[in-house]
Amino acid sequence: MPIGHCTLLRFQELRREFEALPLLLQPQLRQKITPFPPRPLLLILLPVYFLAAVCISAWLFFPALRTTTLRGLRACLHGLRRGVARSTERAGGHVGGFLGGLGRVAGGVSGYVKSHRWQTAGVLIVVSLPTLFAFLMRHNHTFVYEADLRNPNVQIEALLAGERLVPPPPVPPEAFTTAEVVMIRPSIVTASRDWELLDPDFRQRLLLAYQIMRDEYGYQMALIEGYRSPERQQELLDKGGSTVTHAGAYQSYHQYGLAADNAFLRDGKIVISEKDPWALRGYQLYGEVAERVGLTWGGRWKLMDLGHVEYHKPGVKLGAPPPPR
Fold first, then answer.
1. Do residues 231 and 298 make contact, with C-beta atoms less than 8 angstroms apart?
2. Residues of the chain scoring pLDDT < 50
3. How far apart are alpha carbons 257 and 138 in whole angstroms?
4. Can you say whether the dihedral through the CA atoms of 191, 195, 197, 199 is positive or negative?
5. pLDDT at 15 (0 to 100)
6. What's the confidence (pLDDT) of residue 248?
7. Residue 294's CB: how many other CB atoms inside 10 A?
8. Per-residue b/e over 52-89, b at no fewer than 16 CB within 10 Å?
9. Cα 182 to the chain's mean position, in Å?
10. Which residue from 33, 184, 214, 255 puts its CA 20 to 30 A from 265's CA?
11. Which residues cross the membrane (predicted)?
12. CA distances from 95 to 76, 78, 99, 122, 211 (A)
């Protein structure tokens, strides 16, 4: 192969390697780039910045210090020049001249500090205070903005402020006797739907959830069971076992007036089954709304109860009979 052709091929290979070099270096470059210095470095840079600013300001506004500094710098440069000039005669002479110049600068600064000790001390204190304060407060939460404790929902604010909501008109009894309803909830006919037997605080939260579901999503809610006596609770456990409830007497918030089972009302009929897509969507919205007003939704349990909500009122413990009504 001719020598010129070999040279041309080698040149082309070198050019391709050179063009690929930036692509090979990109991962290393990306690893070396750090957009922000770590916090310990910031603690060091902050006082250095203040000291530099103070030194420059002092140099500009104090003629005596400026004169001394310039004289020292000139001496330092002169010593350096002499050291370079005599470098062939004396090894390290330039180092000695440079150190001598630095010594004279240090002497000038030291003399100025001694003659203006109180001014210097005041400047150092002022410069050090921000850094010292930041260091001492590094574990304090003074500058951590707390979450806004005000409820953004105006309706919930009104409820907590004392607005009293009124229960809806009672649903006709025959609405609870349809085949669909009885098949899903056989004992619903004898269930209590008396709003007055519910805890007042829980009642207002539940009514607010009803109102939000109606006003925001167009769902009409219906109470299918509220307060439940301990005898009825035990009866449901004995009849249905774990497929109906896991709780015996005084093990459910129903006995305290702090729980309710709910469904939807559509065209005058009770809709319970989540197999209806409309009802399933309603239960999902209902769960979100219930949690917004501070209630616990049964749809998040292992044994899901989509229509169930309860209020874990402070001070109420399951297992003990509630106070007389």
1. no
2. 3-4, 6, 18, 21-38, 91, 141-150
3. 48
4. positive
5. 59
6. 78
7. 18
8. eeeeeebeeeeeebeebbeebeebbeebbebbeeeeee
9. 46
10. 255
11. 40-62, 118-136
12. 10, 12, 6, 36, 87
Q: Whose structure tokens read 């009302």?
A: 265
Contact 276, 265 (CB under 8 A): no
Domain limits, the chain: 34-136, 154-310
CA within 13 Å, CB half, 217? 20
Query: Biggest alpha carbon distance in the chain?
Result: 119
Q: What count of Cα atoms within 13 Å lies in the side-chain half-sphere of residue 73? A: 6
Residues whose CB falls within 8 Å of the CB of residue 82, separated by 6 or more in sequence, listed in order: 93, 94, 97
Q: How many CB atoms lie within 10 A of CB 95?
A: 13
CA 292 to the chain's CA centroid = 18
Q: Return the structure tokens found at 124.
A: 């150092």
Q: How many CB atoms lie within 10 A of CB 282?
A: 24
Q: Smallest Cα–Cα separation from 305: which of 265, 268, 253?
A: 253
Residue 226 C-alpha from the chain's centroid: 37
Amino acid at 39: R
CB distance 213 to 289 below 8 Å = yes
What is the DSSP secondary structure assignment for residue 252, as one 8-state letter?
A: S
Q: Check residue 263 and give its pLDDT.
A: 97
The one-letter code for the residue type at 185 is R
Are the beta carbons of 252 and 318 closer than 8 angstroms?
yes
Residue whose tokens read 């989540």: 274
H-run or E-run covering 261 = strand 259-266
Q: pTM of whole model > 0.70? A: no
Distance CA 79, CA 92 (A): 12
127, two tokens? 């410069």
- Cβ atoms of 306 and 217 closer than 8 Å: no
User: At 221, is the secondary structure helix, strand, or coil?
Assistant: strand
By DSSP bridging, strand 296-297 and strand 221-225 are: unpaired
Nearest to 93 by CA among 78, 106, 82: 82
**Residue-level pLDDT at 274:** 94
